[in-house]
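Proteins fold reproducibly. Consider a sample protein:
=====
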Amino acid sequence: MKFRSLRYCRFYFGLRGNCNNQGKRQFGTKKDEQKIDLSKFPPEKIRNFSIIAHVDHGKSTLADRLLEMTGAISKSSENQQVLDKLQVERERGITVKAQTASIVYNYMGVDYLLNLVDTPGHVDFSYEVSRSLAACQGVVMVVDAAQGVQAQTLSNFYLTMEQGQKIVPVLNKIDLKTANVPAVTEEMDKFFDIKSDEIIAVSAKTGHNVSKVLDAIVTRLPSPAEFFENCTSEQPLSALLFDSSYEVYRGVNANLAITSGCLKVGDRVTSSFLKTRPKSKASYEVKEIGILSPDFQSTGVLYAGQVGYMFCGMKSISEAKVGDTFHRVGKEVKPFVGFEPAKPMVFGSFYPIDQSAYTNLNGAIDKLTLNDSSVTVLPSMSEALGAGFKLGFLGLLHMDVFRQRLEQEYDASLVSTTPTVPYRAILSAPNAIKANGSKELNIDTASEFPDPMHVQSYLQPMVRGTIMAPSKYAEAISKLCLDHQGEELDVTYINQDRLILSHKFPLSEVIVDFYHKLKTITSGYGSFDYEDAGYEETALVKLDILLNGTVVPELASVFTEDKAQRMGRQMCERLKGSIPQQLFLITIQAVVGSKTIASEKINPSRKDVTAKLYGGDITRRMKLLRNQKEGKKRMRQVGKVHVPKDAFIKVFRE
């Protein structure tokens, strides 16, 4: 028999394929899939935990050592960031997507099933952390012995305490020459009320004391039976969908935490969310189920208290709502309280370079938002760039990583616009109030900007920012905050060398370059975290761009009054460098209302009409020049300025 491809040959002989995010196929036999008998692990012998920390404090490295010590992966110098599977994670050295791995650890002669979730550390991915914690009963909190407690460490600690979870504190990187174990231990006692004898000092890089972390996970963290009522396999099935992703060959991968009952291949499952959707498929048959260790390992069944994956034929994001409760068809259970929807802090528009690629971009965004449910998606239309999408993100890094993943994982060629924040307008005129009676209007784009005559006031989003840094940089940080319209709220000295500053900022002032500037002035030792602080009144204006007196709608933007002039000048300069010379003078103006706040000119290309003259009276020369001038004047009146697509791309991009 002839086979058309190697892939076809492998599937013909019954080998199971798995496509990871880096495009490498991994194949396993059925013998490999039966490594773990999950029936041997009742809820009392299960520990579901997450690793939380600030950026670059060693979460992924510690996860690598835990996997090595339990035999989930072999000991090798190539085993670095094993759970950071995305190309963008390896390139940037950060975790942006929570990953799960199940491992077996023998403690005092008894085997325990440990389900590990490695979470992101950057503030932009805090929603990813909150979802991961929902599947856990405890956390391992990692603190860098050289850098000490950082802003995101505090944020994650409070998030953990709100959910009532136990903590195993770990002090990492004690092998560094710059490590200051006594000082950082004192900080952890001050901020978290954690005593020194509870802290496990380790070096995740060398593996020193990592076995003590595994022991503490077993002895200190609660089992699912202590956390959930009726957490037994004899109860009706109840499973929390806490994460999902898209696999090219098998559709939606649903990550589940089984809180009661058991789930096996062949079961028909549904959820309350699916049943409320009239056009959705109401139920699915489980095709494959298993654990991640850290690759897909089919087990055929999951029992109460266990965490694993499920493939049941779901194909799109509309069928897998994160926070949903799955149960068997016909056997209703009490649903979990769903996750609060993520609130977009930054908006950006994505357009395909070529409109023929719109459908492909639509499919790529649909699959990627399944993998990242904190992104909101709305259609967008631009006269200059065509059809596209307006997306909401949790921060600038979140937006940048999403764009990079589209380009790397789906080969998307796109234009991403300059990020904006969601403003609001309080309407005053009766004829401007919306049909539902609301006086509040959201302003995400310039096209939604209302007539100022109908507006009572404008509101801008505010954030409460927390900065932790060495005290010697206090003056430079205060100046940076002042330059970004920060209002000082509190200053706390951790010790004589470090301090915490709390400021209130307009969100628009911190989303673009604030964090980068902070890192620069503090030599990399400053950390920043922020949380929503509501809306406050401000003065907003709509900035229009005119070419020879004609408004270009797709270049309009919304800014605060104090920022409009700087941005108008910047946009004029970018257009001047992007629009090619034409046969007539082009005037570029940035206008707010009827006032011009910035302008540039592009001089016309000029033909030497006097080149044919070789002598004679000066009046002949003057006549030719006068005729040329009149011709260009008439041309400017009727000529249309051609703005190439590259000019829009250059203006829109940062």
User: Anything to note?
Assistant: The chain is about 25% helix and 30% strand. The longest strand covers residues 455-470. The domain at 238-328 is CATH 2.40.30.10 (Elongation Factor Tu (Ef-tu); domain 3).
